[in-house]
Amino acid sequence: MWMQTVGGNTLTGTFPHYPLEAQLKQGSDRDVPVTQYADFIAETSGRRSFPWRILAIARKDTDLLTNQLVFQIAEEQQITDTSWIRPGKVSWDWWNADSLYGVDFRAGINTRTRKYYIDFASSLGLEHIILDQGWYKLGDLLAPVPEINVPELVEHGKQKNVRMQYVATLQIATTAGSPGCTPAIAVPILVPQRYRRQRQISASCGGGSVG
Q1: Per-residue pLDDT reduced to its tens digit, 59-100
Q2: What residue spans in the chain does CATH classification 3.20.20.70 cover?
Q3: Best exposed site among 40, 140, 147, 187 by fewest CB in 10 Å?
Q4: How far apart (Å, rounded) are the C-alpha atoms in residues 42 and 46?
Q5: Residue 43: Cβ-neighbour burial (10 angstroms; 0-12, 13-18, 19+)
Q6: DSSP code at position 160
Q7: CA-CA distances (angstroms) from residue 172 to 2, 138, 141, 159, 168?
Q8: Residue 190: is its pLDDT beyond 60?
Q9: Nearest to 23 by CA among 38, 36, 14
Q10: How far is residue 68's CA from residue 47's CA, in Å, rounded to a whole number?
Q11: What class is the 90-210 domain?
Q12: How confident is the model at residue 117, as a pLDDT?
């Protein structure tokens, strides 16, 4: 939903219409432009509820973080077994764009850079690091690029008590085949049916990875 002004102090909601056809853009693993829309916004049998949408207004942007409305209107917890969820602080490589200085190796999407991040996280007591896009070959979640040694990173993280998070696009994550030892998706909220598989993938990698 997008909000749009209609004059004065009035806002109205604008909803995208239901996609009838979409086509993955050539050479991309995430751009799926819609080529044909329906004349309605959702397809349903009428026996389901849709998520709440709220418009939060605050004097300061920091006040949005303490707004309790989303929590108050949310449904009860649906996941009965939460023992596998391991919250914690995380270091994200995009914050510094893989730019490391004063090191004796070439920084980038490679194993040595990620080991450096693991050591950094360990020194500050951060529980996780994120390996963002670029760690697998475009279009194939089960094929890490040769510059990234996934098992080596997982093992190094276990020694430093730092767990790995791997980002994959929703397009790839929902079409991947057998997990092997490739850690899974970092978008479990978008694809809740894959919670169980995420646990299996983490276990197959020695328990050193989380989605």
Answers
A1: 999 898 888 888 888 888 888 898 888 888 988 887 777 778
A2: 90-210
A3: 40
A4: 10
A5: exposed
A6: H
A7: 27, 9, 6, 30, 7
A8: no
A9: 36
A10: 28
A11: alpha beta
A12: 92
